[in-house]
Amino acid sequence: MPESDLIFSGEIMMYRTRAGQAQLMLRIPLFLIAVGLTLSLAEPRPNPASAHTEAEDPFPYLIYLPLVERHEWVDAPLNNGSFEGGTWHGTHSGITYDNIRVPESWTAFWLEGGDQEFGRPEMEVISREDERYLNPLRVYEGDHALKWFTFYRNGDAGVYQRIAAVDGAWYRARAYVHVWYSTEDNPHISQWRDGEGQVHPIVNGDPGMAAMIGIDPTGGTDPYAPTVIWQSANIYDQFAPLEVVTVARGQFVTLFLRTTTLYPFKHCDAYWDAVTLEVAQ
Ligand SMILES: [Ca+2]
């Protein structure tokens, strides 16, 4: 369903005023709607009796109007965001692995080695028909979701898809995600056991295993490039939405889903589903 929304245009319209008459320095396109007005006086109101003449300073006031635009979000041409559409072995290196099987149209990536000794993940499209994923439910919508994990190893991994875009248009990506990040085997709750054997819950917002959604507005496919705009959250044990909004800077954008871990817990599992990409019109 199309959805209307407001986005800060990110631009400030500037007026200058003189003797009560506003002089518009920038034309406001008709589709822009000003919803807020903040007033910034660049300097005190001039005293007509003072030596501060209009000739010296003809436009003494600056008024800044933050503007928003009303957009309608419509689907961008993302493929297989539901993960219902088949699988393949696509990876960023082109090397295929039996235990890395991702949704069609998506490509796996990951880090290996480094100080945190990141391990290559295993990835698979899971099914609601598989009882291992019913309790707790690891599928958010439809019959399939995407799972990846590392086992007793740190992971920095994900998938991406490059999508044709309209240069200069706003894009909003959203996915539903949760992780199960635990030293213990109860699949309903993320937990960690300290050095004295005490077990502690890991709850939303706690650091540990971060879920990230990103867009490279330049269409690059390197998830570690500085151009990628990321949103990150710590979402454990139950699906929740994660979204990012940015402006395309070229003929393609690339959407990334990613997780990173701080510690090599036994279970470092990520579950993703219902990915959407919308463009503002
Ligand atoms: Ca699905």
Explain this structure to me?
- This protein is mainly beta and 281 residues long.
- The protein folds into two domains: 3-72, no CATH class; 87-280, Jelly Rolls, CATH 2.60.120.
- 0% of the residues lie in helices and 48% in strands.
- The chain is built from no helices and 19 strands.
- The protein has strands at 3-18, 21-24, 32-34, 38-40, 61-75, 87-88, 102-103, 107-110, 122-127, 144-151, 156-164, 170-182, 191-193, 199-201, 209-216, 229-233, 240-247, 252-261, 267-280.
- The strands form four sheets. Strands 1, 2, 3, 4, 5, 9, 10, 12, 17 and 19 form a ten-stranded antiparallel beta sheet that branches.
- A hairpin with a 2-residue loop joins strand 1 (3-18) and strand 2 (21-24).
- It is globular and about 65 Å long.
- The model is unreliable at 8-54 (pLDDT under 50).
- The structure holds calcium ion.
- Calcium ion binds at residues 82-84, 141-142, 144-145, 273-274.
What Rg is obtained from the alpha carbons, in whole angstroms?
A: 25 Å
Unreliable segments of 5+ consecutive residues: 8-54
- SSE sequence, one letter per element: EEEEEEEEEEEEEEEEEEE
List bound small molecules: calcium ion
Number of helical elements: 0
Shape: globular
State mean pLDDT (0 to 100 scale). 85
Helix content: under 10%
The CATH C-level name of the largest domain is Mainly Beta
Determine the N-to-C terminus distance.
Answer: 14 Å
CATH evolutionary superfamily of the largest domain? Galactose-binding domain-like
Quickly count the domains: 2
The total beta strand count reads 19
Strand content: over 45%
Tell me the major beta sheet: 10 strands, antiparallel
